[in-house]
Amino acid sequence: MTVRARAARALLLTAALPVAVAAPVTPVRLSPPPLVQPARPGAVLPGQVQPLAPHTHVARPLPQVLLTPRVPQVRKVEYDSNGFIEAAHAVVLVGPTERAHLRTLAALVARRTLDARPSLAEVDVSVYDRAAYGGFGGPLPLFTASVPRERLDDFVRYAGNAGAYERAWTNPGREPTRAPLEAPERTLSFLGGSSELLRQQVQQAVSQFMGGVHGGLFFKGDSRSQLAALTFDDAPHPLYAPLVLDTLRRAGVHATFFCIGRNAEAYPYFVRDMVAQGHEVANHTYHHVRLPELSAAQVREELSQANAVLQGITGRPVRYFRPPGGEYSAQTLRVAEALGLVTTFWTDDPADFTNPGDAVLQERLLKHLRAGGIVLLHDNAPQALRVLPAFLELARGRQLTLVTVGRLARP
């Protein structure tokens, strides 16, 4: 038995230790990782509405592109930038008589948007049923498309049935059956008895000390590796996916995107972009729901449905899973492990959905950044997008390589 194995065994026998903090890679004071806490059954966590997420502070309104002449079906056209390029998202609402012309209408909106703002690199269009529209997270769109400026003519030809276009999706008629959990991942909340909770805390202590996957759980990587995983939850979002991917491409960094199945289904081309650019796609359930409240069969359905969507898009099996809101139970773990999934948590959550301000968010990210750590961000949080380029550069300055979860989990 190695020295580290003997030490881990001793740690298991002394379960009073809640966590072992990894040694910092630089002389920087690190905050301890989040501890597994008992869940409060029925508790309502702070909510968020995508893509803006007011919680502690109200997020600044996104700027709008005004179309002239206006298109009556357009509800809004928002845009944002990653400091390098701009992207826009147009929300279009239609009635029953307009459903036969979804492509034509989407092409009109795409062209008008790109003409109205020449600095845009891309416009993404989501067409919804006007009567059922409930925002991002409500009923799925009827049609979506990603239109980079250089592909506009291709999309127009496709809209006129004169060619193929791989960056579009038409809803086959599916609708969500469960309301999403409107809560960001903040704490690791375990629903179960005291002995089960103690087991979770001990497993976390072992993971913090040794690093790696233990019992189907992944809390932290090896602190000797000089690697840290970069992860994004709730992907993909039609406005922010192209901006986040462009930022990572410029920095040469690969990340893991924990995708909500229904989001991946509606925007499959962004999931394909992730894989094509070397990123990892992981499971964040199909509907983004609170799993401890569901039966084992319902949990299995949530994870299996998300797996099927992601594998259908990428052609690759899904390996990693993160429970929405950080809420899980022994049942959640059993179902995930039976499906071959590793339940993955984090060491660094800067609470990007609380909109604390760019400087505060950057400070929080650096305060928790550590070798073997797992950074949690959201791909639809505007402030995270703004601080991401500087954070990637600062991580490199600390001699840390940001990688996917799969790479960090490798022995």
Automatic annotation (TrEMBL):
GO cellular component: membrane
InterPro entries membership: Glyco_hydro/deAcase_b/a-brl, NODB_dom, Polysacc_deacetylase_ArnD
GO molecular function, one term: hydrolase activity, acting on carbon-nitrogen (but not peptide) bonds
Keyword Metal-binding: yes
Alphabetic keyword roster: Hydrolase, Metal-binding, Signal
GO-annotated biological processes: carbohydrate metabolic process
Transmembrane segments annotated in the record for this chain: none
Keyword match Isomerase: no
Residue stretches making up the NodB homology domain: 226-403
Signal peptide: 1-22
PANTHER family linked to this entry: CHITIN DEACETYLASE 1-RELATED (PTHR10587:SF133), GLYCOSYL TRANSFERASE-RELATED (PTHR10587)
Name assigned to this protein: Polysaccharide deacetylase
Organism in which the protein naturally occurs: Deinococcus maricopensis (strain DSM 21211 / LMG 22137 / NRRL B-23946 / LB-34)
Taxonomic path: Bacteria, Thermotogati, Deinococcota, Deinococci, Deinococcales
